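Practice problem 4.
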């Protein structure tokens, strides 16, 4: 999958739950930082939608394990 990562990508983002192991492996292989995106921010802890690498203002590649309607991927734009 590493050759499919667009040039200029600054962060890999995996959607919970299935995208997380894919992003972790790809991040280790490419050296890119990773972020893990929740469906909803938790009301406790950091209260963030994305954990890990900072995504604001960066070129982020969103990765999911299985895509059906694409709704979850579109929802990550809130980060």
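Answer key:
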């Amino acid at each position: 999958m590493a050759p499919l990562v667009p040039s200029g990508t600054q962060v890999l983002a995996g959607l919970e739950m299935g995208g997380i192991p894919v992003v972790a492996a790809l991040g280790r292989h490419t050296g890119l930082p990773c972020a893990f995106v929740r469906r909803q921010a938790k009301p406790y802890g950091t209260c963030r939608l994305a954990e890990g690498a900072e995504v604001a203002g960066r070129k982020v590649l969103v990765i999911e394990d299985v895509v059906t309607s694409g709704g979850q991927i579109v929802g990550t734009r809130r980060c």
